[in-house]
Structure formats: structure tokens, C-alpha cells
Fold this sequence. Notes:
Radius of gyration: 40 Å
Helix content: over 70%
Distance between the termini: 82 Å
Number of domains: 1
Region (Disordered): 97-130
Low-confidence stretches: none
Largest sheet: none
Amino acid sequence: MQQEDGKQVTVYTAYQNKQLKVCYDLETSNSMKILRSIKKVTTIANICEDNLSNLNMFIDRTEIDIYVKEIQNQRQIKPTLQQLLNELQIRMTELQNLAQMEQEQNQSDNSDDWQPDDEQDDEDDSSQQQ
């Protein structure tokens, strides 16, 4: 399970890195074209430079962090669910045992009320004496 999660994170990160490289290459080529065509205007050049420096910080970094956090949260939830299932199973077993004990007590209580038939015992005694 952990290997699958690790593999998913690796694949997702690789995809994000590929996307980042494509965007970076595209932005670089566009910025270079703008810079070459407008060498004299420094404000546009500064904007392009800022855009290039900020590009790496903003592209999908938050999505990667969210994805990794979600996987970590899922790992934390799974043992908790398993613990709950185990606890539920233990409680069900305890209740079944209690029900069985009560049923056995009711049966044994009924057997205490039973009294042997005196006539039958007398007949058995007389047949044995003969």
C-alpha cells in the first residue's frame, strides 16, 4: 500500500515537473521574444524578468503539497478505521457472549423449578425390591 502511494506521489511529481518545464520553456521563449523586440523599454523587461523568477514558485507547487497531505491523511484514517472495526467486532463478541450466558442462566433457572415425580420414583423402588 505504501509502495503504491509512493509510486503515485512519484508519478504525480514527475507529471508536475514535466508540466513545469513545459510552462517554463514557453514562458522563457515568449519573454525572450519580448525582451529582444523591446530592448529600450525597461519596464516590460522588468515585468518579464519578474515573471520568469516567480514562475517556478507558483506553478502547481500547492497542488503537490495538497496531494501529498491527502495521501498522508488517508494513511492516518485507514488504521483508525481498522481499529474501529476491531473494536466493533470485540463489542459484538462480548454482546453475543452476554446473550448466551443469559440464555444459559434462564435454562438453568427453569431446571431448578423442575421437581422429580414422586410416583415414578416409588414405582422404580418397588420394582427393584421385587
